[in-house]
Amino acid sequence: MPVLFSLLLAWLFMVPITSLSVSQPEHSDIAVSPVNTLNVFHSSPPSDTLSPDNFRWVERWAAIGDSFTAGIGSGQLYSKSDGDTRCSRYDRSYPALIERRLGPSVKVFEYLACSGARTGGIFQQALSLRQDLDLVVLSAGGNDLCLSSILTTCIFLPFQGEKACQDILDKAQENIDTILKQNLRQVLSALNSKVKKNGIIVFALYAQYFNTQNNECADKQDWSFPQGLPFSGLKLTIERRQKFNNLVANINKAIKEVIHEYQHDPWIKYRITYADWEVWAREAVKGQFCVPGTTRAYPDDWQPDLHFFRPSLRSRGSDHDELKKKGLIYHKKVNETEIQEDELAIYNTFLYKSANPAADALKALEPRTPTPPGCPGDDKASFGIGLPDRWGKLFHPNELGHRTMASFVMEAIIAVRSGILGIEHPICKQIDQFNCNSPWVTDHRYLSTDVLTETVKTYCKEVVPREGQKWADERLFYKGTPEAHTYRIEARAGVSEYSEQQCLLAFNRIIHGCNRITKNPMNFKLGGSYYFGSFRYILRPVGKQRPWPVIEKPYGKCEGNDEGSMSTYTLYGAGWASSDRGRKFYKAMSDCIGWTVNSYSFKYFDRPDKDGYEWKMIVHWPDHVKKCFRNDKVQKEAGGTTGGCLGTD
User: Fold this and answer.
1) Would you tell me which CATH number, out of the four given (2.30.30, 3.30.430, 1.10.3470, 3.40.50), belongs to the domain 431-541?
2) What pLDDT is recorded for position 380?
3) HSE of 276, CA atoms in CB hemisphere, 13 A
4) Is pLDDT of 23 > 50?
């Protein structure tokens, strides 16, 4: 699947939709999307009816499948209807994003995808669709692999040990080998009577969850959930992560093989393809779990491209010790077996039971429906116990993941449509594409031009090209500061030789050619991307959040307290000292008093404080040189001002 055109389409899904507000549902952990209960703003399609990216031909379409198509947790609840609530359909799912870009020609959209649905339920979704559909998008098969049972047994509640985890992994592979393909054939055959001749079906594949570069994830992170349990889960070793990834690769392989069959079956009247978006999360960006250098927090400032929901993690073993210290674990006899069974019953019921179990039980008795997967726990009659979507969404694509899925699905539609029309696919046209980030994309992060002017020289000089047709290079500057940013170069297939001069030319165009901030006297930058020749150049702010609207001039305050022969000064600032962690202050203070300053601390805030300051510094200072702060001398040499210093000094 071509990545370039999908990236270009991704920008279509970065524009916020404007709409009126509506009342919210009674559920405490979800909100209703206003865009799907009222008129939706549609961008008009091109006027050229023969263009592959003109979607006027789509008048009736549908989205069926499991939670990957329902979009559990991605945005707000799609509407207040019982079906959307029961199936956890959300308004930032990839079908919802596509809905807003198809244009005003759409007369019917059937959104039947349901979180928890296996191929048996998806088969019934297909049968219930109206006829003469122009387009269908779907995902299916993941729940036939007992995915939720894998999550509970191997990751979140792994109290049954290594063997239980391996047994469920073996069961998943057995289902791939024995029942998956036939189940998928049943679904695709059912669609043959629902889709028009030369209508299009796009099957969204699954994505591998885990990076497997090193063992940081196993040694430093505990993934058991909920937090605070008095035991740790199985370690996510490289071997175990690779097993999970292999299952995803194998289910995708099976799906592709079935699609290939149907592409060449003369009885099938529709056109079918797949959207293989996982390559983007795995290779183009740092979109997987366990990427080296990322933190335990979610969201993670050091991994803005994570494509899946996960909980914030604890360091292995630490939380239980802290709970004991605080007396929050009560020491009394309990039946550990009963605790484990109760916890597992809750998770099993929610995570791998259909949202409509009674109906699915009846459907399972029909001989024509796909074969049930036989996952552990299927024989338990513990229906009706549910957990909030804020937990059920874990290990599902987040909003960014669905934006990527939407981009790849749209690219797949355009590719098939190009073949139907006998027109060259737009991806075949070589173009140089220049994109500037918007404030919405950077989430109130921006960069100083002076800082970028220096770091770009260092980066381009020290890039290490890789051998082979495709490679990428990325480097982070000023980690942990408001000025933190990454430079990244991605080489396309069949690349030309790396050029430092071209690197400087491309990044300088991004730095000096992008200006998406309306009132910006300090000339801050938001970064962007540039497809230039055989390379893609990306500049991205990834640091601490900064004041918004943007800082128009450096500002700060200083408070001094007399402590006899010493004084303590507390300084706050924004728009200056934003990258050096107080080093200019250190030099200015030492120069002012004539000797080295030994006692000071400097800290950047994760986001601006209530007064809009980005950092705080505390200095213990000899009383006889207090003028250095009072007359603003030190502050000015550090790049800003506090207008002197107030207080009791």
Assistant:
1) 3.30.430
2) 45
3) 16
4) no
